[in-house]
Amino acid sequence: MATADDLKFQEFDDAANLLTANPDATTVSIGESGGQHGHRMEDEEEDSDKTELLAGQKKSAPFWTFDYYQTFFDVDTYQVLDRIKGSVLPIPGRNFVRLYIRSNPDLYGPFWICATLVFTIAISGNLSNFLMHLGQPQYHYVPEFRKVSIAATAIYAYVWLVPLALWGFLTWRQSKVMSMVSYSFLEIVCVYGYSLFIYIPAAVLWIIPPEALRWVIMAFAMCLSGTVLMLTFWPAVREDNRRIAVTTMVTIMLLHALLAVGFKVYFFDPPEKDHATHKEATLNATKGTAQAQ
């Protein structure tokens, strides 16, 4: 029968002998491995930091790629709502560009505001025309779908062409007066796009028949949005020649007033009323001629 001494594992004795011969071996090995492991972790962290920095310094995409234009729509809902609120509540002394736009100018808000305004004006104009002639048996209502294309042409041309002309003029004047405040083309488009938001509820209210009320609503919306433009662009021209500065601001307001009056006159004072009267007179004349024969 085997004794307890025979069942001993000799490896344990060898290990004990090694520890006895060099008691610091394990400690040293652990310290050295820990140090090497720590150096590897630091190197990995440095590589990770360098990768993140390089990722943050990406080159801008070429203008013919989708990624280039995607940056113009990089805006969240809260920013859009905040800019809409700023466009309908102008406060003297607060510049719309510096306060809302400069950190991240976008085309998302202006694009959808213009698209909504196009359909709102076209639908409201047709509905107003229908209510205006409601109860007249001689009038046959026909929806005017061409108003959508006319509204789209007028609104998008205003939002793009007027800022383009204004940006070119301000850039030219800035080359002569270096102290002038400078705005980019995208910032100017952004201001004009958001300034049109007030016309969306105004177009809905224009359905109400009283003509005097329509003109009051139009004047209120025009003054409110025009104030946003005045407060935004006056700092850009006030250092210029006094006559040029005043002429620029008057031109901005005249173009804005022309757009507002055009909305009211064309879409809510439709020429179809005169057309219906002319059609009725022609029909009566044709009947009279037939009876005479």
Total of helices: 12
Q: What value does the Rg take, in angstroms?
A: 37 Å
Provide the residue-averaged pLDDT. Answer: 76
Distance between the termini: 146 Å
Q: Ranges with pLDDT <50 over ≥5 residues? A: 11-21, 25-39, 47-58, 271-278
Strand content: under 5%
Class by helix and strand content?
mainly alpha
What coarse outline follows from CA principal-axis ratios? globular
The biggest sheet, with number of strands, parallel, antiparallel or mixed sense and barrel status, is:
none
List the secondary-structure elements in sequence, H or E.
HHHHHHHHHHHH
Number of strands: 0
Notes on the structure:
This protein has twelve helices and no strands. With 293 residues, the chain is an all-alpha fold. It has a domain at 76-280. Helix 6 runs parallel beside helix 9. The longest helix has 32 residues, at 25-56.
Strand and helix map with partners:
Elements: H1 10-21, H2 25-56, H3 66-70, H4 77-88, H5 96-101, H6 108-132, H7 146-174, H8 185-195, H9 199-205, H10 211-237, H11 242-268, H12 272-292
Helix pairs in contact: 6-7, 6-8, 6-9, 7-8, 7-11, 10-11
Short précis:
This protein is mostly helical and 293 residues long. It contains twelve helices and no strands. The chain has a domain at 76-280.
